[in-house]
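User: Hey, my collaborator sent me this sequence without any context and asked if I could get a structure. I don't really work with proteins. Can you help?
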Amino acid sequence: MSNKVTCFLPCRQGSQRVPKKNIKPFAGFEFGLIEIKLKQLLASKRIDEIVLSTNDAEIINYAQGIQDSRLVIHKRAESLALSSTSTDELVAHAASLIPEGHILWTHVTSPFINANQYDDIIDGYFEQLDSGFDSLMTTSEIHGFLWKNGTPLNYDRAKEKWPRTQTLEPIHEVNSGAFIAPISVYKALDDRIGSSVYLYSLDKLVSHDIDWLEDFVIAECLIEKGLVTL
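Assistant: No problem. I've predicted the 3D structure and written it out in structure-token form, which is a compact way to encode the shape of the chain:
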């Protein structure tokens, strides 16, 4: 199998929560999150190609001004750019655009996963392939008292009613920062992860995801305070 790593970057027009979220000015960047993410991906030493899939004319116009042969712009059909479009549909879409190698799926809404971190994630992925895993996704570890249906999920109150949070078994929350799998997984399972996925933990700041308006504001504050590196 080819070791080529292609980044799939889905970026549809519109946002119900934050209007023009993907391209509105952000932290001094005129074109916002899409500008930051494309610069990060193009600075990576381990990403061979970037497929930007979007139906947003403003994003296409911005991306066309970037002179780099590694960036491939795909104008996505409107039927695949609805708020109701499922991730399963996008998985099939990604597989149709990227015929070989390995797919790194990421989002502009994770602005603090920078080029060096992508390189580390990709290196970790290939190491884990050699260890028997077939895919990788980034997560955030939650160390807290988690309950469901009136029962703790990650500790036993019969043993200790209130254990120290440091000793609790962490629960991994998928943060959608990155998913990596070979194209064979996409074709065989219709999924962006395989049946033996390695959970790659990111710290809380790096994994910050911009979904709501307050996430956008918090992210700008983190940059202003110098707590993250783009």
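In plain terms: The mean pLDDT is 95. You can pass these tokens on to your collaborator as they are.
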